[in-house]
From TrEMBL:
The lineage of its organism: Bacteria, Pseudomonadati, Pseudomonadota, Gammaproteobacteria, Enterobacterales. Coiled coil: none annotated. This is Probable nicotinate-nucleotide adenylyltransferase. Residues 18-198 form the Cytidyltransferase-like domain. It is an enzyme of class 2 (transferase).
Length: 225
């Protein structure tokens, strides 16, 4: 969890971060690395964004409402997290750049804003819609992922990373956007696909996701087929 802010110290900049995903279902592989990231970087708030129509992935098994309720249950007792429904309310594919533009309109141009992704997403970032504009709206905070390399396959992308990468996370509060920080987060090899398969096989998932989410999955009869 993030450091408590000491009122006797100089006021620290407020840093908000967005973390999107299908969350079908949300699990500790989502939550624990982000909690560690918040501790490392001084994030004040992480806004979870369940996707409605993921552009690059198969359609979710759970409905949008079920996935929203699972996310809300998972973080209901954590002051770090809030949940935003705007992507679920779209009826068209949900692109990160559109969401960032929407938040920027609300927050203005001075608020430090970050977007959290995994190492795998960073290495495929050049395939994202309008990816070149992302750093015009936010910082990128990258969580390590098990089994993924740390180097881009092209010199051009590696140079782009080098140009924007910072090594001191305290710099994130110094301007609203434009930096990339590669965080040292726990490598948890947990996937929603594995959780769904375990449910189909009648195996326990109690150590993979919050109990409140597990109870909801059972009550809704999710992931049984």
């Amino acid at each position: 969890m993030p450091h408590a802010i000491d009122s006797t110290c100089p006021k620290q900049p407020v840093i908000k971060a967005l973390f999107g995903g299908t969350f079908d279902p949300i699990h500790y592989g989502h939550l624990q690395p982000v909690e560690t990231l918040a501790y490392q970087t001084g994030l004040n708030q992480v806004i979870l964004l369940p996707n409605h129509v993921p552009p690059h992935r198969p359609q979710p098994e759970a409905t949008a409402q079920q996935r929203l309720e699972m996310v809300q249950l998972a973080v209901q007792d954590s002051p770090l997290f809030t949940v935003d429904k705007r992507e679920l309310e779209r009826t068209i594919p949900s692109y990160t750049i559109d969401t960032l533009e929407s938040f920027r309109q609300e927050l203005g141009n001075k608020q430090p804003l970050a977007f959290i992704i995994g190492q795998d997403a960073l290495l495929s970032l050049h395939t994202w819609h309008r990816w070149q504009e992302l750093l015009s709206f936010c910082h990128l905070l990258v969580c390590a992922r098990p089994g993924y390399q740390t180097q881009f396959s092209t010199t051009e992308m590696q140079q782009w990373l080098t140009k924007h990468q910072i090594y001191d996370p305290s710099q994130l509060g110094s301007k609203p956007n434009g930096y990339i920080y590669l965080a040292d987060t726990p490598l948890l090899s947990i996937s929603a696909t594995d959780i769904r398969q375990r449910h189909q096989q009648g195996l326990s998932c109690d150590d993979l996701l919050p109990l409140s989410v597990q109870k909801y999955i059972d009550s809704q009869g999710l992931y049984r087929q």
